[in-house]
Amino acid sequence: MMGRAEKPEKTPEEIVPSDLNIPDNYVQHTLKTVKPLPPFKWSNFINDLNWLNVIILCVTPVLGLIGASTTKLRWETFLFSIFYYYLTGLGITAGYHRLWAHRSYNASLPLQYFLAIVGAGAIEGSIKWWSRGHRAHHRYTDTDLDPYNAHKGFFYSHIGWMLLKPRRKPGVADVSDLSKNPVVRWQHKHYILMILIVSFLIPTIIPGYFWGDYRGGYVYAGVLRLCFVHHSTFCVNSLAHWLGSSPFDDKHTPRDHVVTALVTIGEGYHNFHHQFPMDYRNAIKWYQYDPTKWFIWTMQKVGLASHLKVFPENEVRKGQLTMELKKLKATQERLAWPTDSSDLPVISWESYQEQATKRPLILISGFIHDVSNFIDEHPGGPHLLVKFIGKDATTAFFGGVYDHSNAAHNLLAMKRVGVLHGGMRQGLDDKSIPPSQRLKIARYNELSPYNSSTAYSDGEGMLG
């Protein structure tokens, strides 16, 4: 959570990308060759817990609750606490996340300093530390090299990964660009002092100076506001990987949901974000809740931000279409479909007429149909079917007697039992394809030209 004192940093000229020479099979190689620490045990909790984070994340809410129970909440302090929550939260969402971790837009120097300062008030580590972990999260999502791997459970991805010393070092992620950034270097150097001033001193002084509520400012705008900012941000790692849908890709756990957006200052459309991480938006619809997007857009309008990155709409729609087709394919697989023509026996006209004397068979569009279980249910009356037994009813079916509906076409196809030899041009006559199959989502093997032939059989087993 908090930045640590580190060795003197290299000058920008000395910094090289940390992932410059990693092997192609880095993930598999690392998981195979680098052993993680032993699993957490309560018998060894003194050594396994990250005590700095435990104090920040566990003691802070206790202090806040004790303070709230003994301190009256004034309406001025309440409103200021909400304002300060959004201010420090935007330091993370618009600053740490979308500006520095993902470089989704360019910020002027004044805006960078502002976001660096208010972001420190969230006490979630320095920009450099936070962005390094977040880039690893995107690069190794849902693997053991992901610092907050959602597959390890809701609690772990929400807060457990910070309370516990990591069992494995997060995967390598390059932050050489941030190491060259003077604002990032400045914040990293003065981080401890900044969190004391921004997170506690300022929210105490402002309510105290303007309406005489120093204690309330400290408790509500300082301590409890900090707790809300923490868990708001943490929900991006937990709730956003658990609640909602996957409208762009379901390969990994990120989800889209309006509830997550409401509690994370707009970071709830997480499936979109993981697909298009360099887009400055999380929500792509105007009505979706994304105050971080609105803030960045406003900064552009006043000249403090520029080069807002937006993924091409055509490619975004491809992602949506892919998932829509996948859902339709799943629905399609649950439905019963007609027997493929290549699996039906090919019957001569003479054999068809002979077998029609034994069972009610009707020829339509080159397919032979067994209508024995439908004669009494036919809306036009059984006589219309009976008179076509052993005959070709194609013309009558397609408007000669009645122009049948899509439902009738689909139902008829389910009654196919054979193909008339020479009676249709396989795959060329559109009337032979039921309406429900004309837009059917094909498997790759169904597209093969070698699967279009129909086996010839003139045996007597068609009715068996």
From TrEMBL:
It is found in: Membrane. It is a multi-pass membrane protein. It comes from the Eukaryota. The keyword Secreted does not apply. Its EC number is 1.14.19.1. The chain crosses the membrane at residues 49-66, 78-99, 191-212. Its main location: membrane. Belongs to the fatty acid desaturase type 1 family. This is Acyl-CoA desaturase. It comes from Psilocybe cyanescens.
